[in-house]
């Protein structure tokens, strides 16, 4: 039995709370569906990028092998390529979930070792590895996004379940208890008035 006093004021207040809880559940349900749709589309993109990375990596290593055969081991040439330091990280919000945005500063492709020490095969390897680097940054962003969206879905599902299975049934039960108590009170009042009327008519 609810601890709330069975009054018309309390009945109105509980009905209002029940309505808000149902609205909250609908909103959470919609949010969850949007997050799921976003996640599914991101997974498809991640798979496409992973395939592109695999293909480009194979092409890059093949070009590097050819460069090594024609130029010898190119460790010293590789040292001439500057270290990547143009990675940036920012965030955007999707339905209250913070999503990372990984940026990679565009850098013009150029021959850092000089043309007399390199050849077309090494240039091709460099271009392919640069593409892999950019695709990997994009993949890192998408995979992190998928993970965060999955966490968001989990939290949203938990809240929606709490509303659906605990809060809403509790409010519904309280509304029923108060309604039944008020109906009983009305019946008692009606019976009392009937008896008073009967006594008065004697």
Brief characterization of the structure:
This protein is mainly alpha-helical and 202 residues long. Helix content is 74%, strand content 8%. The chain has one domain (9-200): Helix Hairpins.
Detailed description of the structure:
This protein is mostly helical. It has one domain (9-200): Orthogonal Bundle (Helix Hairpins). The protein has helices spanning 8-71, 75-79, 120-200, and strands spanning 87-94, 97-104. Strands 1-2 form a two-stranded antiparallel sheet. Helix 1 packs antiparallel against helix 3. The mean pLDDT is 84.
Task: Give the proportion of residues in helices.
Answer: over 70%
CATH class: Mainly Alpha
Q: Tell me the count of domains.
A: 1
Largest sheet, strands/sense/barrel: 2 strands, antiparallel
Instruction: Extract low-pLDDT stretches.
Output: none
Structural class: mainly alpha
Extended strand count: 2
Number of helices: 3
Query: In what order do the strands lie side by side in the largest sheet?
Result: 1-2
Radius of gyration equals 34 Å
Beta-strand percentage? Answer: 5-15%
Coarse shape: rod-shaped
Distance between the termini: 41 Å
**H-E order:** HHEEH
CATH topology: Helix Hairpins
Using the 3D structure, state the CATH architecture.
Orthogonal Bundle
Average pLDDT, rounded to a whole number, is 84
